[in-house]
Write a structure and sequence with these properties.
Blueprint lengths: L1 H27 L4 H13 L1 H12 L3 H26 L2 E2 L2 H22 L3 E2 L1 H22 L4 H11 L11 H33 L3 H13 L1 H12 L3 H26 L5 E2 L2 H23 L3 E2 L1 H22 L5 H26 L1 H7 L1
Helix pairs in contact: 1-2, 1-8, 2-6, 2-7, 2-11, 3-4, 3-8, 3-11, 4-9, 4-10, 4-11, 4-12, 4-13, 5-11, 5-12, 6-11, 8-9, 10-11, 13-14
């Protein structure tokens, strides 16, 4: 337990240092605040996922590597957005609906298509990682068309403000990046070792541990960022952080992990292809009707997201232990809860088109 807590603490501290140093360094070289926010800040909060997944691949624990990404994406939407919306209804920026969520959906569909053969090859990883560069280049080109007012607005929430702070000098920025990366490397090693120990002690697979404990642990930077943004009233940032991180997790984290996997590639467990990746895709799809219904995530919708994450985690635990309650639990979820949720979201989407149009 101490190893897990220590590894998690190093991941959170390392991610914060990396984000601060990289953001300051980028701004020092005149890179747009918009690009810094959508790339370095979003990617920085996903750095623990990268560190843990790559470290797990190097240790031969590919189930943890893939489960960490899939589980983190599910956790980010259902738990983080759900909890943030309970704090304050989350305003959804129109750009997220028109651009970022479709990109996240496309990345999720691509992962499903590439994984249908049971593995992500070295070439698959390279393709995903190349798409990350294409996405980043697209954001850079797009940022040049942004108005100065829009850049200033995003800069206030996405990057540290001020130019004369203690971290305004290049040596300090490089030091922050170096210390942050070192903390991520050591933290990921501790977290993976602790996760393997948990799996053996509880008698569950590496995949289940990756989908739950490791996924939640590596998502702590996203938790801190989104909840803080919701409390401060920067509610669009709370949503954008999650969507951007999910895209990076698939393209960057799995892409880099695939490149480190060598000729064998990342082997995907049958249960991951048959269930968990589909859940991740369904969660991404659920964002569209929720986001479009008045362009905000209401408190009751946040509570619904949070309840679904609890149900998902409960299913994983029951399935891992082959519990007698599993058939009844599955029947209730598939036969009643899921259909009722779909009907409710459709009704809300139909009844609130005027609110969405008026905000445009």
């Amino acid at each position: 337990m101490l190893m897990f807590i220590g590894g998690l603490a190093l991941l959170v501290v390392g991610a914060n240092l990396l984000v601060r140093g990289a953001s300051r360094l980028a701004l020092s070289f005149g890179i747009s605040p918009l690009v810094v926010g959508l790339t370095i800040v979003a990617f920085g909060t996903s750095a623990p996922e990268v560190a843990v997944s790559v470290g797990a691949v190097l240790d031969g624990r590919t189930d943890i590597a893939v489960g960490n990404v899939v589980g983190s994406n599910i956790f980010n939407v259902l738990f983080i957005l759900g909890l943030s919306a309970l704090i304050a209804p989350l305003v959804v920026n129109i750009q997220l609906i028109r651009q970022e969520v479709p990109i996240m959906l496309g990345a999720s569909l691509l992962l499903l298509a590439l994984g249908l053969d049971g593995r992500l090859s070295f070439l698959d990883g390279g393709f995903l990682f190349a798409l990350l560069f294409v996405y980043t280049a697209f954001l850079i080109v797009q940022s040049r068309r942004e108005s100065q007012a829009a850049r200033d607005e995003y800069a206030e929430g996405a990057v540290p403000s001020g130019t004369g702070g203690w971290d305004s000098r290049l040596p300090m920025q490089l030091l922050l990046i170096g210390v942050g990366l070192a903390a991520l490397v050591f933290g990921s090693e501790l977290l993976v070792q602790a996760a393997v120990g948990f799996a053996r002690a509880m008698g569950v697979s590496d995949l289940v541990i990756g989908l739950t404990i490791v996924a939640a642990g590596t998502s702590m930077p996203e938790v801190a960022t989104s909840i803080t943004a919701a409390i401060k009233g920067e509610r669009d940032i709370a949503v954008g952080n999650v969507v951007g991180s999910n895209t990076f997790n698939i393209l960057g984290c799995l892409g880099l992990s695939g490149l480190f996997s060598g000729d064998l590639g990342l082997v995907l467990a049958p249960s991951l292809i048959a269930f968990d990746i589909w859940v991740m895709l369904a969660v991404a799809l659920a964002c569209l009707p929720v986001f479009l219904s008045g362009r905000e995530i209401a408190r009751w919708e946040g509570g619904l997201f949070l309840a679904y994450y609890i149900a998902y985690a409960a299913y994983l635990i029951l399935a891992a232990q082959q519990h007698d309650a599993l058939p009844a639990f599955s029947a209730v979820m598939l036969g009643f809860v899921v259909p009722l949720t779909i009907v409710t979201l459709v009704v809300v989407l139909i009844r609130r088109p005027a609110a969405s149009a008026s905000r445009d």
